[in-house]
Task: structure prediction
Amino acid sequence: VQLVESGGGLVQAGGSLRLSCAATGSIFSIRTMAWYRRAPGKPRDLVAATTTGGVTDYANSVKGRFTISRDNAKNTVYLQMDSLKPEDTAIYYCNADLQTDVAARLSTYWGQGTQVFVSS
Result:
């Protein structure tokens, strides 16, 4: 199983970016997909998460600016980031809790990370 992220880059404050993360490989089902981020000198924190049923959760710092969405048919999760601020600069990581087989237990997988840099 691999989580492949794309969409990071450099943007000016107030701009937008859209991150994508596709889960590939032997996947039976995915429960939760989420985005985390690690800013320089800080721990990795949850940004947003979504369940199979579409329930979402956001960090307070991104509520109203970021939107997480998911295409279950494509095993893909997106993060639309609007009104970006310099403090959103971080490496963004995709995360998924999934089963590789009907009898397998739920396991957590991580993407390699994609850099987002917001200039002031």
Summary: The CA atoms of residues 35 and 94 lie 5 Å apart.
